[in-house]
Amino acid sequence: MVGWPGGMGVTYRALDGLRVVELGDGSASMAGRVLADLGAEVVVVEPPGGLPERRQPPLVATPGGRMGAGFAYYNAGKASVTLDGAHPDGARLLDRLLDGAVAVLAGPGADRSRAAARPALVWVDLTGFGTTGPRADWRAPDPVVFAAGGLLSISGLPDQPVVAPGRPAYDVAGLHAAAALLVALWERRRSGRGQRVDVSAQECLAMLENVVTFFSGEGWVVPRLGSQHVAAVPGRIYRCADGHVHLYVTPTSRPHWQAFVDWLGRPEPLAGPEWEDGAYRRAHADVVDQVVSDFVAGMPREQIYREAQARHLPCAPVQTPAEFLSDGQSQARGFVRPEGFPRPGFRTSAGDSPFAWAPAAGADNARLLGLDAAELDRLAACGVV
Amino acid sequence: MARPLNLEGLPLRGVRVVDLSHMVAGPYCTMLLGFCGAEVIKVESAARPDGFRLRDGRGRMEHCRQFAEINRNKYDFTVNLKADGGRELLLRLIARSDVVVENFSAGVLSRLGLEYEALRAVRPDLIAVSLQALGRDGPDRDHVAYGPTLMPLVGASHLWNDPAWAEPVGSQSSFPDYVAALYALVALLAALHWREATGEGQYIEIAQSEALANLIGPAMLQSLRGDTQPAPRGNAPLATAVPSGCYPTRQPGRFCFVCAEDDHGWAALCRSLGISAQPNWETVAGRMRDRERVEAAVARCLRACDPDGLAERLQAAGVAASLVEDGSDLCADPHLADRGFLAEADHPFIGPLRYPGVPLRFERTPARAERTAPLLGEDNDYVLRSVLGLSAAEARAWVARGVVV
Q1: What residues of A are in contact with residue B350 (Cβ under 8 Å)?
Q2: Do B359 and A172 touch (CB under 8 A)?
Q3: 3-state class of A160 per DSSP?
Q4: Cα(A284)–Cα(A275) distance, rounded to whole angstroms?
Q5: B243: cis peptide before it, omega within 30°?
Q6: Deepest of A145, A159, B85, B138, by most Cβ within 10 A of its Cβ?
Q7: Is the peptide bond before B148 cis (omega within 30 degrees of 0)?
Q8: Cβ separation of B226 and A62 shorter than 8 Å?
Q9: How far is it, in rounded angstroms, from Cα B329 to Cα B323?
Q10: Per the CB < 8 Å rule, is B169 touching A139?
Q11: ipTM over the 0.85 cut-off
Q12: A238 in contact with B, Cβ within 8 Å
């Protein structure tokens, strides 16, 4: 039905004809990436020589040469122009580019001065803390926003918080920003008018995990418990013979617990009916964890996974990214494209998503800036492009 | 008696969504749609309410704050899909709707006779969105998985770690659910645009595992095409930011994240903390060579600092820093207060409660949190009479038959 490994033979470009210009230091790139996955023409405006992220290790091989893994991932399917917006000639080129655009994603570091003069544009500002308020000028790399957004407080060990992998704050914000852009475009169909949208990454994160209402409702600060779930016992990672597994039993499900305890062979310490109550298990987690640890200690991951799933128990091996990419499910679904690149986070019956490698810096200068080779050379020599 | 839900002036006004989803992934997506003015009709039943109503473990379905937080701006319609006529009634509603969102476990949808083909038969241009743990096909399609178990499966837990720790730690969060919700949201909004252009609907599938894998997309790409496999980076995710860490302060349990993004940031940090200038440490290369001692010097200073105002002071000096904010900090956060992000709203059973607001701030057509979470069946009358156009007698008959209950 959707995205068979052989492909559907049809490329789906929901946003065909939509030009989105991406400005700033590259932190808004997830927003542009998902729009490119949907067929929009997303143009990244980089400084002459390209964004520093292009050279940021770890480097990966692409047909166009080696490139930072982050840049290669976030800018797949996009076009690139290079220009110095602070130079008068560069500013004129940027204006020319914006003339042909419908929407702008203005990330951290972007020049926002053009927004007011272009009310027909959908102009989305994506920043760490928003464009207003006492922290609008804060230095906001991803982990700073992750800390300010509430999620770092539930991430890691009790005496040591640890940030999530990747670029979680700006990625979550980027997805929110892409949605906001599409909503504003929808409204524009009716009204004929663009508008500005302010997306604060801190606010996006503060929506998640009920961190706010656990406190505002009951004065409870969600603790940091590593992989241990706040309510479910068992509900964490356990060591096994050849690695680790995650085992979880829904606190409110008696059938789940019964299936679990049967699987363990009805061990004596967990035999009584009181253990059916999730809250009781949480209060006596050390007993449960000891029995479970002993049970899985000598078993390989795959066996534990198979046996648990055969009993409809949510269990997962703790895998590396490589193991996930090569496992049976990923292979069957063709999650990795023939080109050696992961597929997007959605699939549709309307067709395959388009794919192209991240562009070389300024690859689209001639086409999008309307310059011939001689003009490009002249401007490059002045550091304008 | 239903409370009014006024969606006038909102940007997605006129789009109707039938929301069959439970828990987090579907509901967070549809709540954002509701904030933007889509008419979201949440479908539950007394026999099968949204399990998230019991999230707080207290067993009172109209009192759960966690449910309330992610189910705002939704109408509620109770239909017993297993009762005779339940499926028929739901299909009538879907025939008048633009989007359907569901996250049923494998097999449930076909047992209910609600697969895409059946829905498309009543509404050819329907946009159907299915959120599944591992996807609808493949050898593991029937596997049971939740947010906390998807992170280890995909490789996120392996990376959500400090290199110094012997065991993978990860997080107990349901992060994958929110990520899936956001991919669903973007894909379905694009589908609405596509339908305007072509008249065509579509079936959208979000495998939560694949959505989550894209949130560590660069790591996946490194695994496929890099020289080394991705490894946990702890609190130093930015390769050239040294020092970088989550440091204890003078107050136990209060931490401050601080990093020196570049040499200027390092100089600013030294000035703020009173660390005397060390020529060896002026460049990032020098700080990397002597990393342990650099980190120890910074940690020593920060351990003596009071957390209150610390991040503000560091930021003012040009240092990237933030307190590790928990729920109490978010509720007292002066920046969020200045932006009016947290607002109190009333609920018939929960009473007044402060909620996070709408993170998408449209300048001309603002989205808004209009109504707090619905009671079970709160809007049955509205759906039966106004949406489905039934007479009072017809509406009563559906209730009497045990279908709307």
Answers
A1: 217
A2: no
A3: strand
A4: 9
A5: yes
A6: A145
A7: no
A8: no
A9: 9
A10: no
A11: yes
A12: no
